[in-house]
Design a protein that fits this description.
By secondary structure, the protein is of the alpha+beta class. It has 7 helices and 27 strands. The longest helix is centred in the first third of the chain and has 12 residues.
């Protein structure tokens, strides 16, 4: 096998595919990146593939193929090398058990693995619809922070994706907060309705990589597939069991406060500098302002007042700082609205104007303070 390819294009594709390689592969070949060079029908291109039995990644790029073939190269090593190459064009040629890589003045001889031992990647399921890549990435960024990192409860490590007609809703929870985002999408079949649990870490990587152009969604056989711009990822779905998040996000709150998002986030970050581990940020809402407070222990204390429009009684609520900041970061409007009932009940964070069911909703538990 022998091919030549743009260094920038090759390095980007290698890095994208190698991101799913397992840290501790169950078999040595799963640490490899399979490169297939094809020159059939007068065309020329490369397909880079990675697989760990739960997640697969495939990227197709243009190349000048002198000799077609396949080679399996240790993926993380190849990603590091291509990221630091000095020239504009990469050439790879196989010779026995080595892949000879040259670029500018650099040359590497990389030991290969048996390509025939690499497992067959799962087929892409049937396409069920598509949506804008930027909107998809934004929605994942708003919802995924609320997913749990505790693998002992797999249900909580996923993002629930529900599609109904021309609307997609994503939701995640770690038991202490719920984040949900609604966005438009284009079903392949009118009236199509389904739901799936996608591992959060995979969805975050997919959204980050496929934010340009349209994203095609495929579902079937316990697998989800995402495709955009010559790149495709499949992932094994989690168990479909999930909480009834819609009911929990549609309660009633008698107190409402609107605050400008940017200054609010900055104030919380500043005051949180004196919040000791696992201590709260306290928000005191009164007419015309919110007082952000933290500390009082061994480090010290801090406070900052901001303008706020309050509807209802004065109230003080307290949160874990990063839980509050994750919710505020998901608001895309100039102002954020906090829906409150009491200092001990969860608070709903939405955009302003906040209609009966805003596109982004974030319900977070409050903390008790002395």
């Amino acid at each position: 096998m022998k091919f030549r390819v743009s260094r920038e294009t090759f390095a980007d594709a290698v890095s994208w595919a190698a991101r799913i390689l397992p840290n501790r592969p169950s078999a040595p070949v799963l640490s490899g990146l399979l490169i297939g060079a094809d020159a059939a029908d007068g065309g020329s291109g490369l397909r880079l593939s990675a697989f760990d039995y739960d997640v697969s990644a495939r990227a197709e790029i243009d190349a000048v193929v002198d000799e077609p073939g396949r080679v399996l190269i240790p993926g993380r090593v190849l990603a590091e090398i291509t990221r630091n190459l000095p020239g504009d064009q990469v050439e790879i040629a196989t010779s026995g058990s080595e892949a000879l890589l040259t670029c500018g003045s650099a040359e590497f001889a990389l030991l290969t693995m048996p390509a025939e031992d690499f497992p067959t990647l799962p087929a892409m399921p049937s396409r069920v619809g598509g949506l804008d890549g930027a909107a998809f990435a934004a929605a994942v960024g708003q919802v995924a922070p609320a997913a749990s990192r505790d693998d002992t409860l797999p249900m909580l490590t996923g993002v629930r994706v529900d599609v109904e007609a021309d609307t997609m809703t994503m939701a995640a929870t770690d038991r202490y907060r719920i984040a949900a985002r609604r966005l438009p999408w284009r079903p392949a079949e009118a009236g199509f309705t389904t739901g799936a649990m996608v591992p959060s870490r995979v969805l975050v990587e997919v959204a980050r990589a496929l934010r340009g152009g349209d994203v095609a969604l495929s579902l079937g056989g316990g697998v989800a597939g995402f495709e955009s711009g010559g790149r495709a990822t499949t992932v094994r779905l989690l168990d479909e069991q999930f909480i009834d998040y819609r009911t929990r996000l549609s309660g009633s709150w008698s107190i409402r406060a609107d605050v400008r998002v940017g200054p609010f986030i900055e104030a919380v970050k500043r005051v949180a500098l004196v919040a000791e581990r696992n201590t709260a940020i306290r928000l005191g809402f009164t007419r015309g302002q919110v007082l952000v407070q933290a500390g009082g222990g061994d480090i010290g204390r801090g406070a900052e007042a901001l303008p706020a429009e309050l509807s209802g009684d004065d109230i003080q609520v307290a949160f874990q700082p990063h839980f509050l900041l994750d919710g505020l970061a998901g608001v895309e409007t100039e102002f954020v609205r906090l829906h409150m009932e009491s200092s001990t009940r969860p608070v709903l964070i939405t955009s302003v104007p906040g209609d009966a069911e805003p596109d982004f909703r974030y319900l977070v538990m409050t903390l008790r303070t002395n």
